Amino acid sequence: MGPFSKIRPYITVDVREEILRHVDAALVTASIVADEAGILAGVSLAKREAERLGLSLLHFLVEGSPVGKGDEIARFTGSPKQVVMAEESMVGMLAKPSGIATKARRFVEKANGRPKVVCGAWKKMPSVMKDMIRDAVAAGGAQPRIVNGQFAYLDKNYVELLGGIKESLSAVAHLEDHTKVVQVKGRYGDIVSEACDAAEFGADIVFIDTGRADDARAVAEELARRGLRCKVMLAFGGGVNLEEMEELTALDVDILDIGRPIVDAPLLDMRLEIIDVQKES
Q: CA-CA distance, 75 to 114, in Å (whole number)?
């Protein structure tokens, strides 16, 4: 006999079926429970997963619902294997987006109506995650886009490619039905001069993307001095965190863009609990 004659062929076995084979005909009722307070998101994803698994939903809180520690988020019935698989997939589909929604809500509450909180960082995420993150941002009460409707966003790279602030705005001047947004970072002069150029040459929103509150103050003051502040909205961003919100809400800005602190929020802790097991009689 050869040296490999005693090796058994590899056979894939679903270990869950082996573990549960004595109760595989049971009807299980289970729930997903929050382990901390927050804002619920990812409901549509989790519902589709429940349908794919063949679970019967008894109830599910709606997207954007506030939850407290110990609150039941969803309840459903299914076979033991279906319920075990739900723990592996549905909890994750809710926990991450709920963490994002919770963090977004904290920023919105700190802003207290002004400035408007937006989070466009979902656009830089992998394509499979974009919809989930965008919807979670909205569930938390923040805006996933800097402006509703059509807009032309002239970021630093467009400005570089087109040769400057004036040239960039000239390139989109024919887009009369688009809001013109210009990102200024002080690359073509000081930040105040760039912002004033943007306001004079047709920007609707000037986005001060330096993360320095003093820049926003200086820009707002100079725009007001020149009679330009009423022509544009001011947006501010760049590494903003929750601890800075008291200072930032005192600025004369209309929009606050929050990136990584929202999209990189930790999971909202939750768990699956078995409520009842009805074994076959």
A: 38
